[in-house]
Amino acid sequence: MKTLVVYLMAMPETPELARVAVESGADIVELGFPFSDPLADGPVIRRAGERALAAGMRTGRCLDVLAQTRTLIDVPVVLMTYASIFDAYGWEKLERDARDAGATSFIVVDLPSDVRPELRRVQLVAPTSTDARLKLAADATDGWLYLVTVTGTTGARADLAPTLAPLAERARAATDAPLYAGFGISTPAHAHAAAELVDGIAVGSRAVEAAEVGPAELGRFVASLRDALDGK
Amino acid sequence: MSQTFGAYGGRYVPETLIPALDDLEAAWASLRDDDAFRAELHELGTSYGGRPTPLTRAARFAPDQRVYLKREDLMHTGAHKLNNALGQAVIAQRLGKRRIIAETGAGQHGVATATVCARFGLECIVYMGSEDIRRQAPNVERMKLLGAEVRPVEFGTRTLKEATSEAIRDWIANVDDTYYLIGSCVGPAPYPEIVRELQRVIGREAREQFLVAEGRLPEAVVACVGGGSNAIGMFYDFVPEEDVRLIGVEAAGAASLSSGRAGVLHGARSSLLADEDGQIMDAHSISAGLDYPGVGPEHAHLRDTGRAEYVTCTDDEAVAAFHRLCKTEGIVPALESSHALARALDCGAELVAVCLSGRGDKDLAEVLAQ
Predict the structure, then answer these.
(1) Which of B71, B162, B216, B338 is the most exposed, fewest CB within 10 Å of its CB?
(2) Does residue B311 lie in a domain region?
(3) Is residue A41 among the annotated active site residues?
């Protein structure tokens, strides 16, 4: 069975959206804490972050949303954000407070795997990663390894990136950890194709767009990915 | 090679960019002390850039002091930015990269990058906030004349901060064939060190010229600080001279050293205009080149160690200094450099060297509108 990871930006309505996503087949929820200058994000998540900040979603309120989400779902919840958020709050303090609120792990998009190894987190590798860096990330990662399918930022693409297959092959050689692919995976067809190569997928921008329409749209979208991953 | 300056600097970038930064660091490590590379830079600086630039006594501007101006405004393209652009263009070619991207605020770095790309036959794409495109129209036209593509950045503050983010996103997507020619001593390691080393020529020349003119070193060296590249270049060879005060002048509305806090932006940890949650705040300055909420990490370190002092200058004070230099010396300074000029007059030192980092032709419309 392949794993489905769904990203949602922290907003007041996110706990209910996360509940719907899990009910519809998500196995892991990534909860984004917005940052004003998200270097790794394309237009959809960048705009979602701007809206969240305009709605006052600073770190303290994001932690409240995380705690509320935890009361509604019992799958892993991964806090995904940027280094500036940790640096301002205090690295150890945010790790502790987020775990207390129910986070099971972390993704810090702009924190390379050799920096701050004491923060146990899901590590990312990219098509440009050398074998040595792949090994470094795989050895340090928390539970699963995040394969960035494209050389680029987050956001929907027409086709599954051809760079995923060789990256997945190299990652397999480096680790026994489960490999989940993300960035540019947005349709059931992508999900189906990626499932041939890796153990799971992470969907961000398209999930954020569906969530903006509402819980019903998000539920339909997540269910369509679940079906594609399960070969239905 | 150290990637940090005390508690600052480092590499806070997505994994996609790390191999490219490793390649750049390796290339830089072999080039920085390479005689052929240094000779090539020297030749380009003299035969193309116009180095050495003069040191000019400003006796009517500062009648009660002995103030000297390091004339980077006389560099080809009208600002110190060319020192860095020429050097990094040579590095890009050593790395085999033919597509060059850059960010620009006032347009001076964009013009310098477009210039060296024309000189070396490289593709050039410059990201510029749409608000800066409005404020700095002549430089936009210059970049286009030089064959560069100027891509407007239409979100956020529409200024240098967003232009830099968008340039980095382009780099993430095209890292295989693209060199990011960053314009200041900011960004992930090894950029802050590379830019400092390429701008060091300013202070090296100024130090020698000041000794010839006065038979001693200045009491104070003054430079404006946005990202901080002219200041770090002007300061660096004076850092070991402990009797020489180093004074960085920030725009009052963009004082990331004077009123900022530690944070992470554009790949490095530094002192930033940020709120208590680490969200980056908007800067404001009449001068587009200082309108940036971050600063080079080495400046944050020089501040913390007490080796350099950082003060501010308001828009009005800068405009007054701009007019004063025009009227008393027949030199039209950039609004950025005018911040340094204002503080040179009241820094309390008798013997002063100021970095006149650029000329002010680009600022005429902004100043006349005041």
Answers:
(1) B216
(2) yes
(3) yes
Active site amino acids of B:
81, 103, 357
> What pTM, to 2 d.p., does this model score?
0.96
Half-sphere exposure of A79 (CA within 13 A, CB side): 31
Residues with Cβ < 8 Å from A96, sequence gap 6 or more?
none
Write the DSSP symbol of residue A143.
S
Rounded CA-CA distance B205/B201 in Å is: 6
Q: Does the beta-carbon distance from A46 to B11 stay under 8 Å?
A: no
- B274 shares a domain with B141: no
Distance of residue A223 Cα from the nearest chain B Cα, in angstroms: 30
Residue-wise pLDDT for A117-152, tens only, equals 999 999 999 999 999 999 999 999 999 999 999 888
Chain-chain contact of A39 with B10 (C-beta, under 8 angstroms):
no
Comparing CA positions, the residue from A118, A20, A121 lying closest to residue A75 is A20
Cα B246 to chain centroid, rounded? 16
Residue positions counted in chain B: 370
Range of the domain at A190: 3-229
Write the CATH number for B151: 3.40.50.1100
Q: What is the DSSP letter of B47?
A: I
Q: Are residues B144 and B290 in the same domain?
A: no
B333 vs B330: CA distance, rounded Å: 10
Q: What is the pLDDT of residues A1-28, one digit of tens each?
A: 999 999 999 999 999 999 999 999 999 9
Q: Which residues pair with B280 in a beta bridge?
A: B274
Q: Do B173 and A124 touch (CB under 8 A)?
A: no
Both tokens of B135, joined, read 């404020």
pLDDT at B84: 98
pLDDT tens digit sequence for B19-34: 999 999 999 999 999 9
A132-137 long-range Cβ contacts below 8 angstroms, 24+ apart: A133/B15, A133/B18, A133/B19, A134/A170, A134/A171, A134/A174, A135/A174, A135/A175, A137/A113, A137/B15
Note the pLDDT of residue B2: 78
Token digits of residue B172: 């993430």
Within a domain: B1: no
A53 closest CB neighbour out of B161, B276, B279: B279
Q: Are residues B262 and B173 in the same domain?
A: no
244-283 in B: which are within 8 Å (CB) of A? Answer: 261-267, 269, 274-280
CATH number at A219 reads 3.20.20.70
- Tell me which chain B residues have a C-beta less than 8 angstroms from the C-beta of A37: 161, 165, 265-266, 280
Instruction: Show the tokens assigned to B165.
Output: 């983010």
CB pairs under 8 A between A and B: 117
Chain B residue whose CA is closest to A149? B16
Q: In whole angstroms, what is the distance from residue B298 CA to residue A195 CA?
A: 46
